[in-house]
Design brief:
three-stranded antiparallel beta sheet, binds zinc ion, about 375 residues, 3 domains, Herpes Virus-1
Length: about 375
């Protein structure tokens, strides 16, 4: 991937005119030409123009034109080089699929997912442009909510916890219902900042602990005690058993925690869906599925099940959302049509396996213990 990235960086530098010894950017050339023209216009208004001046102007225009032509050539060559580097890096053609997102409903859902992604990740101008061009309707309320989210996140980045605290107090019931530590962590961050900024006898930090942190003692007793014990190790907290509290992550982690809680309050997932799709797909899953497809085609065994993957794709822990049951008899993953069933002995196999093991009279002998039971007494298990 190194070569295409290098070529891309070069293309950008050439376009922006930041490469030494090369022509300035096209915008730069046009701007300087415009400036010359304005200058001449001003001169014309106040004074008559000499012939020499006009000749010079014609030369300047010609020179700028040449500069821009050369620049365009430079950019074109850089694009060609990048294209070649990409062809070299990606020898496999992109997999071809049946056209996706063709129905109006599917197209609208995709557009709205992309627009919400831009809003959620704080790319408001890109979102506006996308909404305008795609014609998708996004609830004004959602836009306002995400603008508020990013206003609060920006404040947090500037070490201002007040807007976040204000949101917490408005949504206290929601936060309490899911035992969120957000509010306490905001105060913890503030307390540590005070603690590390003040000198003995640490009055500002002490009074913050006494007036604010004290309210969280019952819910966060252990952490509260750890915070107060920090005083004994000052001013060398980073070389103490409480070094983790001196780390900058105590403050920076607040942003993602806040964003998670904020999105949860809107009924949205913990992670941005498009990011998850991109991370998993581009993280190797797509390439592995494509390889499996090719191998299966060569072996003349087509992959037919639409709701099942042909191979196991290992996901990062943060992308595992629910438990998966694999039948110990058939080794297949359970599905909605073939769910896990628990027999009276407590052993679980999938429905299909249960059917296969049943005798004509409906009795099943558990494959894992001596118990025999009736097929109909098995219970479906929900994960
Ligand atoms: Zn059993």
């Amino acid at each position: 991937m190194d070569v295409p990235l290098k070529e891309l960086a070069k293309l950008r530098a050439i376009t922006e005119g930041t490469l030494k010894g090369r022509n300035p950017s096209i915008e730069g050339s046009l701007d300087s030409l415009l400036q010359t023209l304005y200058q001449v216009k001003n001169e014309l208004e106040t004074d008559s123009m000499s012939k020499d001046r006009l000749v010079l102007l014609a030369q300047t225009v010609e020179a700028k034109k040449k500069e821009i032509d050369e620049k365009q050539k430079e950019i074109y060559n850089a694009i060609v080089r990048l294209g070649k580097a990409l062809d070299k890096a990606f020898t496999q053609p992109l997999p071809s699929y049946d056209p996706l997102f063709m129905s109006d409903d599917a197209k609208a859902s995709l557009d709205s997912t992309v627009a919400v992604h831009f809003l959620r990740t704080g790319q408001f101008s890109a979102a506006e442009m996308f909404i305008q061009e795609s014609g998708v309707t996004i609830d004004a309320e959602i836009r306002n909510k995400f603008e508020e989210l990013h206003r609060i996140l920006t404040a947090l980045r500037m070490q201002d916890i007040d807007p976040a605290l204000e949101w917490c107090s408005k949504n206290r019931q929601f936060l309490q219902s899911k035992s969120s530590p957000l509010e306490f962590y905001l105060h913890r961050s503030q307390f540590i900042r005070l603690l590390l900024a003040c000198e003995a006898p640490y009055q500002p930090a002490l009074s913050y602990a006494n007036t604010v942190l004290r309210n969280y003692y019952t819910e966060h007793t252990t952490e509260f005690r750890r915070l107060l014990a920090c005083f004994t190790y000052l001013p060398k907290l980073e070389h103490s058993p409480y070094a983790d509290l001196a780390s900058s992550t105590v403050h920076t982690d607040l942003e993602s925690l806040f964003a998670t809680e904020y999105c949860a309050s809107l009924g949205m997932s913990r992670q941005a869906p498009l990011k998850v799709v991109g991370d998993i797909g581009a993280g190797g899953a797509l390439a592995r599925i494509e390889k499996a497809r090719t191998v299966m085609k060569e072996k003349k065994s087509e992959w037919s099940q639409s709701d099942e993957l042909p191979i196991e794709i290992t996901l990062a822990p943060e992308n595992r959302y629910h438990s998966i049951f694999a039948c110990p008899v058939s080794k297949e993953q359970s599905t909605e049509q073939n769910p896990p069933m628990m027999m009276v002995c407590g052993h679980v196999i999938t429905k299909d396996s249960l059917h296969k093991l049943s005798k004509v009279n409906g009795r099943v002998k558990c494959p894992y213990c001596p118990t025999e039971s009736v097929q109909t007494s098995a219970l479906r298990i929900y994960f």
